[in-house]
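quick one before i forget lol
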Amino acid sequence: MTINLIIFDCDGVLVDSEPLAMRVLITAIAAQGIEITPEIAFRDYLGRSLASVSASLTNSHGVPLGATTLAAMRSELYALYRKELRASPGLPDVLGHLTTPFCVASSSSPERIILSLELTGLLPWFEHNIYSASMVEHGKPAPDLFLHAAAAMRTDPQNCLVIEDSPAGITAARRAGMHVLGYLGGSHVEPGGLRPIVEGLHPDAIFDDMNALPDLVGSLSN
């Protein structure tokens, strides 16, 4: 096996943003007259684009997230990011020890990805290799985004390694024919009850310390 490209998810992997995003999302859904618990929100919406979340709410409750709601959410979330967003522990030092090319492929909008990376000092590592679900027809758990990133980076999917924290993202990586590592070091993992769900999806390995990543990549390439 040869790993020629590492594809990072952004939220919950590069940046510890999921608790902030879920806080805003749950409040917005409640304003629509729908009460959901954090556990359900993490289970059903983690790793998905807002368009996908809106479609899911339409299917389950008959109420989408309207344009006004989405704009308000975006404004509130960006303000929260500027106050509280942090890079995942160990970054960006770990990125400097990777010898394999890497990129980011996220369900977030390009604007949100760039803001997240800029606020956490990670943008210089990724600014020319950023891929968003807005660039493809179907977001995670469909494989479209990861296949788009691989094609843009001119890499065969079977030689790609995805770093993901969400069930939707791990499923998407598998459907794309890629290797995948489950990162469980984010502060959302325990409250979201994600560990047993991720374990049940059987990624190539599970880790919770970014400092372990270079060795994990090396072991998969042997």
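fyi The chain has a mean pLDDT of 92.
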